């Protein structure tokens, strides 16, 4: 049963308020009603059978002093942190204790175990070296436990007050974006439990205040999302933001406090124009976040359609838009939307149409590269943001591939054939100014003057409706012992790999060399473990067949170049008869890159230096100045 959906009409009134305006007097709100709302939402995703089994297991194994022998209460790991499991177990026992449908309902022995475990937590008061556990996870979990146990015989007031004191963590005003939303959730729990009207009002104001644009962290004016500085994080922290807003809206159903019309517009813009852009089916673009891709299953958002259903009920003005996005995510056969979106604040571009979705991500001096090493995650991702490229037809081409990836061959990247060590764990800015793109909404060009990790290259990505042309020039690799590589793609291998002169076909995507560069094909079984790229994940080895396509520029490369075209959405028969002579590469050098589609009469040019370009009846096409934070980008589309 979708409880959120059943509550939709009521929640809409809670979120929007009667006049879409500022908050009214909050003092009348029945805090007991808020507590009951939270209980309903907490129960929504509970697997009763699993919780019952786990609760009985924890009751049986708990020691007399309220601890469990298998947990390390002195653990100083940043993640995973062993003491958090203590609270998680209490939460599962609390679900079992308060459910009338379980045979453990108000079980005296289970209640005693819960109290013993809570007292033990207070007595040891574990502290983690990772602030997130101290300021977010621990107080949130304690809040959920107290909400479930509220007004039961299990909990006395003295212990209740001590636990509420444990929840007073995190500076709500200090943080921005998703981190602020996470802290706001346990502030709201505490306000409801204590009946503190003032705290509730301040919490909701701060929580909904994240729905604004223009701050360094949070939703950007181009509808991308930043967290941990100027770092693209639509995937990951963008999820947390949306989930948090929806949770608070549901918790406050029946109250008179809601989003302003301006805040609601910011939310809908972000979901429809930013967040929704990263999906192909229920799978998110690996380029759209940071260290998230090093966690198993993290790129699959199974509940996205349910979230959109709730949003359509909350935001009636955009109901049809949410429903259309949900249909496209439910099945790629429903995709009708065609667009090119440049997220210029984040050095990120997405091309979408019924046949495919593609993206490219860079990093300039204005933006941070995808973070590597933080909390022991994304240990090999140094070259993400170095022109990383994603091309998807079904959506799951890269799903859970990453333990078996060759991380020196991230798709789209030109690099030495080795994985460079990361310097800073939590992200660092790119090294060059000239990174960015132009878009007319249907097609676009993205370019990078790349110089890092022993490689220099001028790289252009040209997105037409049906084709993507990738050009590289001025390639230099400064290591006489290591090859310089341009990776075209590296994805899960499915079906036959077909090779012809200067062309390769695999899994509904055709690749064509447009110059003398030889494309090297590999399709073999590789093995790796999630622990290889994320210290919080499993050590177990997995084996996957991987398709890899790349160009080898040789060692100690000087003035190297490449030119290739990608045509997605073809059958194998269509590949054999497909013509490409309507695409012409007019220039590909260190000064300029130019491509024309003679079928559609579209010309795209990147100027790396000031100059002009003549093409047929277009005389002296000059570079265009695009200003981004005082930086000039010279591109023409």
Textual characterization of the structure:
- The strands form 7 sheets. The chain has an 8-stranded antiparallel β-sheet, with no helix packed on it. Strands 21-22-23-27-26 form a 5-stranded antiparallel β-sheet, with no helix packed on it. It has a 4-stranded antiparallel β-sheet with strand order 5-6-7-8, with no helix packed on it.
- 30% of the residues lie in helices and 25% in strands.
- Helix 3 (31-44) crosses helix 9, helix 4 crosses helix 6 (108-124) and helix 9 (177-194) packs parallel to helix 11 (237-251).
- It has 15 helices and 27 strands.
- It is elongated, with a radius of gyration of 27 Å.
- With 637 residues, it is of the alpha+beta class.
Which features does this protein show?
single chain; 637 residues; alpha+beta; 8-stranded antiparallel sheet; 5-stranded antiparallel sheet; elongated; disordered N terminus; disordered C terminus
At a glance:
With 637 residues, this protein is an alpha+beta fold.
Rg over C-alpha atoms, rounded to the nearest angstrom: 27 Å
Number of strands: 27
SS content category? alpha+beta
The overall average pLDDT, rounded, is: 91
Share of helix, binned: 25-40%
What is the topology, as strand order, of the major beta sheet? 10-11-12-13-20-17-16-15
Main sheet characteristics: 8 strands, antiparallel
Blueprint of the fold:
Blueprint: H1 3-6, H2 8-16, H3 31-44, H4 48-61, H5 82-98, H6 108-124, H7 131-149, H8 157-166, H9 177-194, H10 197-208, E1 218-219, E2 225-226, H11 237-251, H12 261-274, E3 279-280, E4 283-284, H13 304-314, H14 319-330, E5 339-343, E6 348-353, E7 356-361, E8 388-392, E9 414-416, E10 435-439, E11 444-452, E12 455-463, E13 468-477, E14 483-492, E15 497-500, E16 503-506, E17 509-513, E18 519-529, E19 541-555, E20 560-568, H15 572-577, E21 583-588, E22 592-597, E23 602-607, E24 612-615, E25 618-622, E26 625-628, E27 631-636
Antiparallel strand pairs: 1-2, 3-4, 5-6, 6-7, 7-8, 9-14, 10-11, 11-12, 12-13, 13-20, 14-19, 15-16, 16-17, 17-20, 18-19, 21-22, 22-23, 23-27, 24-25, 26-27
């Amino acid at each position: 049963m979708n409880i959120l959906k059943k509550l939709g009409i009521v929640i809409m009134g809670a979120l929007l308020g009667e006049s879409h305006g500022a908050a009214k007097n909050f003092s009348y709100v029945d805090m007991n009603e808020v507590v009951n709302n939270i209980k309903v939402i907490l129960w929504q995703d509970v697997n009763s059978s699993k919780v019952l089994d786990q609760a009985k297991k924890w009751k049986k194994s708990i020691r007399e002093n309220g601890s469990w022998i298998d947990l390390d209460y002195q653990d100083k790991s940043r993640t995973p942190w062993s003491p958090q499991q203590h609270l998680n177990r209490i939460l599962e026992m609390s679900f079992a204790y308060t459910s009338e449908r379980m045979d453990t309902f108000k079980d005296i022995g289970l209640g005693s175990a819960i109290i013993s475990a809570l007292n033990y937590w207070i007595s040891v008061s574990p502290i983690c070296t990772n602030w997130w556990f101290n300021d977010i996870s621990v107080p949130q979990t304690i809040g959920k436990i107290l909400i479930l146990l509220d007004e039961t015989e299990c909990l006395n007031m003295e212990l209740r007050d001590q636990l509420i004191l444990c929840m007073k963590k995190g500076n709500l005003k200090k943080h921005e974006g998703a981190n602020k939303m996470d802290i706001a959730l346990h502030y709201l729990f505490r306000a409801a439990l204590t009946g503190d009207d003032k705290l509730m009002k301040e919490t909701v104001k701060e929580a909904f205040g994240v729905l604004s644009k223009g701050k360094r962290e949070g939703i950007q004016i181009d509808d991308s999302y930043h967290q941990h500085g100027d770092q693209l994080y639509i995937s990951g922290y963008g999820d947390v933001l949306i989930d948090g807003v929806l949770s608070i809206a549901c918790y406050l159903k029946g109250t008179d406090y809601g989003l302003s019309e301006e805040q609601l517009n910011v939310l809908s813009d972000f979901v429809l124009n930013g967040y929704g852009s990263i999906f192909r089916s229920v799978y998110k673009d690996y380029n759209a976040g940071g260290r998230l891709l090093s966690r198993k299953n993290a790129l699959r958002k199974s509940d996205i359609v349910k979230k959109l259903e709730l949003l359509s009920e909350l935001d009636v003005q955009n109901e049809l838009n949410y429903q259309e996005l949900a249909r496209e995510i439910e099945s790629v056969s429903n995709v009708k939307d065609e667009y090119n979106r440049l997220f210029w604040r984040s050095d990120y571009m997405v091309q979408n149409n019924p046949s495919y979705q593609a993206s490219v991500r860079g990093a300039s001096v204005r933006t941070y590269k995808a973070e590597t090493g933080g909390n022991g995650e994304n240990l090999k991702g140094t070259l993400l943001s170095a022109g990383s490229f994603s091309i998807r037809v079904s959506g799951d081409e890269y799903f859970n591939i990453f333990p078996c990836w060759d991380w020196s061959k991230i798709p789209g990247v030109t690099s030495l054939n080795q994985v460079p060590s990361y310097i800073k764990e939590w992200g660092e800015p790119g090294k060059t100014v000239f990174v960015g793109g132009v878009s007319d909404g249907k097609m676009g060009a993205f370019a990078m003057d790349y110089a890092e990790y022993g490689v220099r290259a001028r790289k252009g990505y040209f997105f037409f409706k049906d084709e993507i042309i990738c050009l590289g020039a001025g390639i230099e690799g400064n290591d006489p012992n290591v090859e310089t590589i341009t990776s075209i793609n590296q994805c899960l291998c499915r079906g036959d790999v077909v090779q012809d002169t200067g062309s390769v076909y695999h899994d509904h995507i055709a690749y064509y060399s447009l110059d003398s560069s030889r494309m090297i094909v590999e399709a073999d079984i590789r093995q790796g473990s999630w622990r290889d790229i994320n210290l919080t994940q499993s050590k177990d080895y997995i084996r996957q067949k991987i398709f890899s396509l790349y160009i080898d520029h040789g060692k100690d490369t000087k003035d190297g170049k490449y030119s290739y075209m990608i045509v997605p959405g073809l059958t194998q028969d269509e590949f054999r008869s497909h013509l490409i002579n309507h695409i012409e590469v007019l220039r590909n050098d260190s000064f300029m890159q130019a491509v024309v589609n003679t079928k559609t009469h579209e010309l795209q040019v990147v100027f790396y230096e000031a100059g002009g370009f003549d093409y047929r009846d277009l005389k002296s096409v000059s570079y265009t100045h695009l200003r981004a934070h005082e930086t000039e980008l010279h591109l023409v589309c």
